[in-house]
Amino acid sequence: MRKLASWAASAWVGFGRACVVTAVSMLVPAVWAAAVALWIWWGANPWSWIAPFVWACIGTFALSRPVCRMVRSLVAKWTGTVIPAGYRQAEPVTQLSTGYWWNGFSYERTRRDALMDQRMRIRWKDPAVWRDLRFAVIAPITMGVTAAIPPAGVAAAVLALTQPAFSVRLVGLLGLVVAVAGAPYAWRVVEPVAVRFLRASAEMALADRVDELTAQRADTTVAQAAEIRRIERDLHDGAQARLVALGLSLATVEKLMESDPDQAKALLRDARAGAATSLTELRDLVRGINPPVLTERGLVDAVRALALDSPLEAAVSADVQLRLDPPIESAVYFGVAELMTNAVKHAHAARARISIAQDRDGTGIVVDVEDDGRGGAGVRDGGGLAGLRRRLAVFDGTVEITSPVGGPTQVRMVIPCASL
Amino acid sequence: MRIVVAEDLYLLRDGMVRLIEAYGHQVVATATTGPETLDALLTWRPDVSVVDVRMPPTQSDEGLRAALAARGQVPGMPILILSQHVEQLYARELLADGAGGIGYFLKESVFDADQFIDALERVAAGGTAMDPAVIAKLLSSGSSNRRLGRLTEREHSVLGLMAEGMSNQAIGRRLFLSESAVSKYTTSMFGKLGITDDDDSNRRVLAVLAYLNEP
């Protein structure tokens, strides 16, 4: 009984969805049907087809994108399959010092012209526009026809059952049976059709990838320049200044050696202390650029060393001694270091667990960092986690953060890696 | 003492040899790569040797591995490891065999020549000598916090100095305490940590570090 009820519910829902799919995919054919009707109605003049044809073309063009949008959102809502739209994004229009406006394609005298020009150019150059048009043609003859079966069956039944003739009524009954039997399934054709014809083409995917890489390259360049400036500043204010002081002390000692040996000795002691301090500074600086233990031992032992030095009670588990490419090792190391620092500083955690493993098909590395802190971590612009994401993005790596308020925080870093 | 010096940077090696010879010890061999170091250690069987961690050919932890390999063949061979940086990880590996005769110092410890030679002699005698930086790291890390939480501040500093390899007398001088006061602190500290007391300073260090070494 319950089975029957659930089937009836799915048939009812399916019927509704089939109607929606039919309506959406038949919008463009409806425009053409209207145009043909208009032409027949105006029939006398041999040129009378021109106006309806032009109107139908414009209508198709205008409707294709909304139809695709609707199909995409329906598929996402009903099946959870997200089909990326891949439309070209408009760049911001900027005013140049000459007073002209630049829209990414051309210079225009006013902002309004620039925006209009940009809209037109994107409209014509975007490969997604042609894909949408193609879909508007394909949709009616694939999913439109299939999804139309249940509503058509019901319509046929309603029409036929009102007729007196028995054979006609039989056909109507058959229509009803087909409609009811097909209702739960007919709408499902929308997903494969949409996935096949609405997804971004190879060309569009490539264009997206180029955009992504350009953005990443810019990010990396900026981050690298900032890093180099930091190193320069540290050396300039730290070790360099101390070496100058050291040279100064030694010069003074040379003078004082005979006249005041006691003060010379004191100065020498100071000089030695200064040398030791600058060594400590240099060591910290080096650790920030590339931790020596990473060079000497590789990622797993470097993370072990990190865990040992951390004020947290941290357990490290690694199934294999991985030796990865140095840039990846460095990115993962600093990622783990960042997460451990966050666990201490923000989450006030006492314990952490780090695991380093290959992923299941052996084409990447998966690093999990978990703490028992108070959670609530999120990615903010310019924050540490955003920096971590940026560092890993260079290698197509991803960061997943689960950190409910109250904890615990779990972070998973996945980096594809061909050298495994 | 007969000493082997393994260090790939000429200036440092030369400086170290001169320093050691100035204190009346004899440098019997020098080595500049990992394999050479292992070879020199096993051929000369020096009273003590000074080994750099990072050396050619791979510029990774060649020296450390040579030292561990040599100690694997000759247990307790006295070696003092020098490095630009100190890692608890390495300290634990060096101490893992519990045989003593191990030192682990930052390179700049040679600035204080007296202390450096003193450490060399301590290691040669089978003792342990650790850079204060190593001890600080060992004592402040998360895993030891829990165990050492019950110690008073004074006991904590006594433990640190003891772990560097100092005798009660030296600790007393450093902390401006009488020797008997220090021994009172050590007794109560050992009680709290559950380590049986022993007069031999080397064994005390080993006991403390073995305790910190527990996973």
UniProtKB/TrEMBL annotation, chain A:
This is histidine kinase. It catalyses: ATP + protein L-histidine = ADP + protein N-phospho-L-histidine. Gene3D superfamilies: 1.20.5.1930, Histidine kinase-like ATPase, C-terminal domain (3.30.565.10). Residues 229-294 form the Signal transduction histidine kinase subgroup 3 dimerisation and phosphoacceptor domain. The keyword Repeat does not apply. One of its GO terms (cellular component) is membrane. One of its GO terms (molecular function) is ATP binding. The chain crosses the membrane at residues 49-68, 133-160, 166-187. It comes from Planotetraspora kaengkrachanensis. Keywords: ATP-binding, Kinase, Membrane, Nucleotide-binding, Phosphoprotein, Transferase, Transmembrane, Transmembrane helix, Two-component regulatory system. Its EC number is 2.7.13.3. The keyword Oxidoreductase does not apply. Residues 335-417 form the Histidine kinase/HSP90-like ATPase domain. It comes from the Bacteria. InterPro entries: HATPase_C_sf (IPR036890), HATPase_dom (IPR003594), Sensor_HK_TwoCompSys (IPR050482), Sig_transdc_His_kin_sub3_dim/P (IPR011712).
Automatic annotation (TrEMBL), chain B:
SMART domains: HTH_LUXR (SM00421), REC (SM00448). InterPro entries: CheY-like_superfamily (IPR011006), NreC/VraR/RcsB-like_REC (IPR058245), Sig_transdc_resp-reg_C-effctor (IPR016032), Sig_transdc_resp-reg_receiver (IPR001789), Tscrpt_reg_LuxR_C (IPR000792), WalR-like (IPR039420). GO terms for biological process: phosphorelay signal transduction system; regulation of DNA-templated transcription. GO terms for molecular function: DNA binding. SUPFAM superfamilies: C-terminal effector domain of the bipartite response regulators, CheY-like. Keywords: DNA-binding, Phosphoprotein, Transcription, Transcription regulation. Residues 2-122 form the Response regulatory domain. Residues 144-214 form the HTH luxR-type domain. The modification 4-aspartylphosphate is found at residue 52. PANTHER family: TRANSCRIPTIONAL REGULATORY PROTEIN NARL-RELATED, TWO-COMPONENT RESPONSE REGULATOR. This is DNA-binding response regulator. It comes from Planotetraspora kaengkrachanensis.
